[in-house]
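Thread: quick sanity check before group meeting

JM: Hey all, I'm pulling together slides for Thursday and realized we never actually wrote out the predicted structure for the chain we discussed last week. Dropping the sequence here so it's in one place. If anyone has concerns about the input, flag it before I start.
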Amino acid sequence: MRDRVPVVVQTRGVRSTPARVLWVGAEAVITCGVVLLLLVVHQLWWTNQQARAQATQQVRALEREWEGSPPAPSVEESPPVEGTPAPVESVASPEAEAEAEPAATPSSRRPPLSSAYAILRIPRIGLTAPVARGVGKRSVLDRGYVGQYPDTAAPGRPGNFALAGHRNTHGEPFRYINRLRPGDRIRVQTREREYEYVVDQVLAQTAPRDTGVIQPVPRSLVKPSYGYSAPGSYLTLTTCTPEFSSAYRLVVWAKLVR
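JM (edit): ok, ran it. Output follows.
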């Protein structure tokens, strides 16, 4: 009787079903983590780079334009009536999608919507940013611009020159306005001239629907101890707070000095 020779069959290692599930799950988690990391980099870094580049380019374009042409004659506007409500439902959130459309006005009196017409400079926080009409997200704020609330006063005029800007992402021009203190200088340059305001009050937190802060005579409806009771020439800066949230609004008020 012949001796049987054992046959050895080599097979590729096959993972058991539980091990295979764990491996696939691990790959999915890693993939999701990479995608989330890329999204965070895009929001926190790339949008800032893009918006700051656009804003800087616009500031330079305005400066070149003003240097090469004589000042346009200013148009006198009637001061706003005290207590007249601004036609907005809330203090703008830079995260809001809706475009706030102003009432129709002759093009000779105001620049077109979303067109930068002034430059805001705040030396204390190293800010230089273009100012455009409107507080629309895509057309103004996401470009790194500072937006003027519709139907608020023009720079240097009686009433309330009220502005909004991103606190985080898309250039985040207002990220550090919480560092402003009474006495800090804010300059607003237009084709006609440069105006200077001095910071007077800071409201660290209020509700998004506190529209009193952007009225012609600004006063908080939520915290009435903050604000004013007499007409004047005011500048209001608003942004979201705390950082990376739109739960509340941070407000800075300044008064015209020249």
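AS: nice. Residues 114 and 139 are 6 Å apart (CA to CA). The first strand starts at residue 116 and ends at 122.
JM: adding both to the slides.
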